[in-house]
């Protein structure tokens, strides 16, 4: 070992001894670890529904496609007016379903065949939910079928009134609802614009049952006339034309006799129709107005296949 290595070893040893003596003077035992307080769990608030200014009036919202749509819109953040004519308990159940899922809704009784009721419907909806931004004209009646709906076989004494009883809610009522909605949505009258969807039918092209088919054809013509006028007010209007759908308006016998004409070999579910209506109401369809979307399992408009 040379002198440099010897000197280095002596220095290192002296440093180590000094450190050891200092440790002994401080008291034997390892230096205690600092105490770390446990991490307190922070409560995470449940997700809140996104604030929305969308308010939709759905006529005939107590059952079938209307009820399915109301619940769907409620989950999507709309405040929903569930209109009904006579089935109060069903309408209130739809409202409960929406509210239980965190939404806001109100049931309003109104017969859309009566103009005063339509005005009341929109006034009450607006008072309860805020400015109206969307409308779905879903309320409708089928009217007479078979011989009673025939041009030549029905009783002439009651035939015209029976047709009027279908046209009033299905056409005049829908027109009155469009008028009341447009007056509130119009960007030229202080509104923010909006969207309207009419629930039409393939019967408009098939013509049966006769009065019902006539009314849906008139609804389609009404829409064609309203498209350019409403566009100037920031309002879109579109239609869906459902095929055979599993609601109380389509009996099991009628569905069974027609299912063979449907390429998908089944009737539609109310939720399937509601999903298309929801799309047409949404901003995703912002460049869509004047459309009539067939939702019929592949069965074409007016087709007998």
Description:
This protein has helices spanning 3-26, 64-75, 88-100, 115-129, 156-185, 203-206, 210-231, 252-258, 270-281; strands spanning 55-58, 79-84, 104-109, 134-137, 194-199, 235-242, 292-295. It has one domain (55-294): Rossmann fold. A 7-stranded parallel beta sheet has the order 3-2-1-4-5-6-7, sandwiched between helices. By secondary structure, the protein is an alpha/beta fold. Helix 5 links the parallel strand 4 and strand 5. Residues 3-8 and 28-49 have low confidence and may be disordered. It has 9 helices and 7 strands; from the N terminus they run H-E-H-E-H-E-H-E-H-E-H-H-E-H-H-E. The longest helix is centred in the middle third of the chain and has 30 residues, at 156-185. 46% of the residues lie in helices and 12% in strands. Helix 2 (64-75) crosses helix 9 (270-281).
């Amino acid at each position: 070992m040379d002198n440099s290595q010897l000197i280095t070893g002596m220095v290192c040893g002296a440093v180590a001894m000094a450190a050891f003596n200092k440790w002994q003077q401080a008291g034997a035992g390892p230096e205690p670890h600092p105490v770390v307080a446990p991490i307190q769990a922070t409560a995470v608030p449940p997700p809140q529904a996104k604030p929305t200014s969308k308010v939709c009036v759905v006529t005939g919202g107590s059952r079938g496609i209307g009820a399915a749509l109301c619940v769907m819109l409620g989950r999507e953040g709309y405040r929903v007016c569930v209109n009904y004519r006579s089935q109060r308990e069903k309408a209130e159940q739809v409202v409960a379903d929406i509210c239980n899922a965190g939404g806001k809704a109100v049931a309003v009784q109104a017969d859309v065949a009566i103009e005063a009721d339509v005005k009341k419907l929109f006034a009450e909806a607006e008072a309860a939910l805020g400015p109206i931004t969307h409308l779905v004209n879903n309320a409708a009646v089928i009217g007479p079928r078979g011989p009673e709906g025939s041009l030549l076989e029905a009783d002439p004494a009651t035939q015209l009134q029976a047709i009027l009883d279908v046209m009033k809610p299905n056409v005049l009522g829908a027109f009155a609802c469009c008028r009341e909605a447009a007056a509130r949505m119009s960007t030229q009258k202080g509104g923010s614009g909006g969207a309207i969807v009419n629930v039409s039918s393939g019967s408009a092209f098939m013509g049966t049952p006769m009065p019902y088919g006539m009314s849906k054809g008139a609804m389609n013509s009404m829409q064609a006339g309203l498209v350019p006028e409403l566009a100037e007010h920031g309002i879109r209007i579109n239609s869906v034309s459902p095929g055979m759908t599993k609601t109380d308006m389509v009996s099991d016998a009628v569905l069974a006799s027609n299912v063979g004409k449907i390429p998908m070999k089944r009737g539609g579910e109310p939720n399937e129709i509601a999903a298309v209506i929801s799309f047409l109401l949404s901003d995703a369809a912002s460049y869509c107005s004047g459309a009539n979307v067939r939702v019929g399992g592949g069965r074409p408009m007016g087709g007998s296949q």
